[in-house]
Amino acid sequence: MAVYKPEQYNSVSPYLIVSDAKATIRFLQAAFDGVPLRQHPGEAGRLMHAEVRIDDTVIMLADAHPEWPAISAHIHVYVPDVDTTYQRALAAGATSVQAPVKKEDEDRRGGVKDAGGTTWWIATRIG
Asked: Where is the VOC domain (predicted)?
């Protein structure tokens, strides 16, 4: 069978167009233990394409430019400890959207917004 995707990549990956890809990568490393995989620089120091692995998922991202402006997005991430990850995200420069709270479903969930404009919904399944 032909190889149709890189090994250990998921079939669907969020692709973020952000105002500062390098800052977003630093945030993903600090908040989620993200592991940078690839970076393809472009002109004037911008990143044309980058990839960061968070647990079993690859996030793809790039710096905005006139033809591809930054777009705010919402990403949901399951983590082992929502409260610890929420605090790490704040320490990494994110702003709070919602402190972690248990609502009607089985998750305890909070949200933060990073400097690049992405809102990260962080959750832990607690039953």
From this structure: 8-125
Domain boundaries, the chain: 15-125
- Per residue in 24-45, pLDDT tens? 999 999 999 999 999 999 888 8
Give the C-alpha distances (Å, rounded to integers) separating 50 from 20, 80, 90, 106, 112: 12, 25, 23, 33, 22
Q: Which letter does DSSP use for residue 86 in this model?
A: H
Q: Tell me the longest C-alpha to C-alpha distance in the chain.
A: 48
Classify domain 15-125 at the CATH topology level: 2,3-Dihydroxybiphenyl 1,2-Dioxygenase; domain 1 (3.10.180)
- pLDDT tens sequence across 42-76: 888 899 999 999 999 999 999 999 999 999 999 99
